[in-house]
Amino acid sequence: PIKAAIFDLDGVIVDTAKYHYMAWRRLAEELGFVFTEKDNERLKGVSRMRSLEILLEVGGLADRFTAEEMAAMAARKNEWYVQYISGMDESEILEGAVECLAGFRALGVKTVLGSASKNAMLILNNLRLVPYFDVIIDGTRVTKAKPDPEVFLLGAKEAGVKPEECVVFEDAQAGIDAAKSAGMKAVAIGRPDELHGYDRIFRGLYEVKPREILEQD
Ligand code: B16
Ligand code: MG
Predict the structure, then answer these.
(1) Average pLDDT of 23-51?
(2) With helix as H, strand as E and coil as C, how does 129-190 read?
(3) How far is the CA of 95 from the centre of ligand 1 (A)?
(4) Which residue's C-alpha comes closest to atom 7 of ligand 1?
(5) Checking CA distances to 35, which of 19, 106, 119, 133 falls within 20 to 30 Å?
């Protein structure tokens, strides 16, 4: 039986992709190239440093910078990003997210955050969502980025449940792959033509009925 529901943050509970995009685009502009919204799709669910590598590849600037220069660029991007997300509030919570979290809890299922973001706490605080989670694992707690299953396995461990007792809600392919290699059930949030390898797919948490997820297991 399912005993824990693990939620990705960006793209599942809140749409921060637009703020990541604004910050990455600004960095690309400084470096002298255009970074499109389509390019930005490749960064979803991917760690900050890996995102920077992809951005530099797009700009034809791969392998041109030292590790220190790369770290400085990532830090600058993050300063802008933090500025952008500082103004967020509850109105930016995606439809159905609160109902879904509360719904699982009401059925005795532990709620877990499993996010790659080092800024997850700032976002959850701004959205007033901290009390909805039993366990919070974010990018500051893990060393290996999705598709590595570390973030989800740690979440299961802290919730005191086995991996096979977890269902993961994810919008990014890297996250779906991470959930499957953790031995968990993967529920994709997005479009069937953009994702694969999931157990179920919904357009958003507003379509998810916690009771049905447990019954179908
Ligand atoms: P940060 P998630 C991921 O969050 C984002 O999808 C991804 O675009 C971002 O690069 C990554 O977090 C790291 O975020 O720079 O804030 O540490 O989808 O795993 O909740
Ligand atoms: Mg995501």
Answers:
(1) 94
(2) CHHHCCEEECCCCCCCCCCCCHHHHHHHHHHCCCHHHEEEEECCHHHHHHHHHCCCEEEEEC
(3) 20
(4) 45
(5) 119
pLDDT in tens, 59-84: 999 999 999 999 999 999 999 999 99
Distance CA 153, CA 25 (A): 33
On the question of pLDDT at 22 being above 90, the answer is yes
3-state secondary structure 33-97: CCCCHHHHHCCCCCCHHHHHHHHHHHCCCCCCCCHHHHHHHHHHHHHHHHHHHHCCCHHHECCCH
Predicted TM-score (pTM) of the model is 0.94
Nearest to 43 by CA among 52, 34, 30, 32: 52
Q: Collapse the DSSP code of 8 into the 3-class scheme (helix H, G, I; strand E, B; otherwise coil) and give the result.
A: coil
CB 103 near ligand 1, within 6 Å: no
| Residue 77 burial by Cβ neighbours in a 10 Å radius (0-12, 13-18, 19+) | buried
Ligand 1: does its nearest atom lie under 6 Å from the Cβ of 173? no
Catalytic-role residue among 10, 39, 138, 171: 10
How confident is the model over 43-63, as pLDDT tens digits?
988 899 999 999 999 999 999
